[in-house]
Amino acid sequence: MSEPTPVQIAGEEPNDKIVIYWEREYSTAISPERLKLDFMPHRPLLSGMSLDEQRAVAGDGYKVVPDDCGPVRTVGQYGWLVRSPADCKIRRTADGVKWQAPPILPEERILGYKSFSGTYVDSILNSGYPKLCCGIRFYYPKQVGLMMKDLPNHFYHYPERTFCVWEGIKTQEYKRTPNMYDWLQDYDAFTANFLLQLTKPTTIKRGDPIGIVVPVLLPKQFTLEELMPRR
Fold first, then answer.
1. What is the extent of the structural domain holding 85?
2. Tell me, what's the pLDDT at 10?
3. What percentage of the chain carries pLDDT values higher than 70?
4. Do 153 and 138 sit in the same domain of this protein?
5. In CATH, what number is assigned to the domain containing residue 92?
6. CA-based end-to-end distance of the chain
7. CA distances from 137 to 35, 82, 134 (A)
8. Are residues 98 and 164 located together in one domain of the fold?
9. pTM, 2 dp
10. Are residues 49 and 24 in the same domain?
11. Is residue 230 part of a domain?
12. Residue 122 forms beta bridges with which residues?
């Protein structure tokens, strides 16, 4: 078994970087990658213009779209994208969720993990919701959490998508996945299996984008306070 591969989060200074590691549970898993949603590079960046310049562009008939929003562009390049390792078909029926998915073969199970169904699609017991097993295990420092979430603004970038991702945050309180590395003493582990909400019968191809993993602060690390103006 090889050592996990590191991915880094840039802080204000080089020594502020937090290292998160990942490794394959299945040989079929696709490496996580930095999210880079497609935008329209030929469009003028309004955020780099003065107000008068923006008014002039608007006066010429320019129609503002979400691409023009700086925060929207930023969130479209934040986090690590996880892709499907296999072709799957999933649908809801009166008898519950049904799927067609290849089995996870013994020779593919690098870490020995097998889903309850034995295939790349599983379900939470009696929930009626399918879970896609993407075959990636992450190791994260205990002072942060890792949020599993849907692709940001997927209704814009993937309007034909027939499923959504149930979002959640993995913290040190969730310790079902073992950390098998002594040199990662202050790290916890979890497997990137995404719980899906179907809107229609769904076909997922190997390599299709499923969701992203994003580091977040824990609730105990921040508070919200009203700023009172000075009198």
1. 5-37+79-221
2. 43
3. 89
4. yes
5. 2.70.40.10
6. 64
7. 18, 11, 9
8. yes
9. 0.84
10. no
11. no
12. 131
- Residue 158, domain member (yes or no): yes
Inside any domain, residue 200: yes
Whether residue 25 has pLDDT greater than 80: yes
Strand ranges of the sheet holding 202-204, from the earlier edge strand across to the other edge: 96-100, 88-93, 202-204
How far apart are alpha carbons 18 and 25 in whole angstroms? Answer: 23
Range 44-51 average pLDDT:
72
Residue 108: what residue type? Answer: E
DSSP sequence for 143-191: TSEEEEEPPTTHHHH-TT--EEE--EEE-TT---B----TT-TTEEEEE
Q: Report the pLDDT value the prediction gives residue 41, as an integer from 0 to 100.
A: 57
Question: Could you give the percent of the chain with pLDDT greater than 90?
Answer: 48
Indicate the helix (H) or strand (E) that contains 121. strand 121-123
User: If pLDDT is split at 50, 70 and 90, which confidence band does 173 have?
Assistant: low
Highest-confidence segment of 60-69, 119-128, 195-204:
195-204
What tokens does 87 get? 């072709």
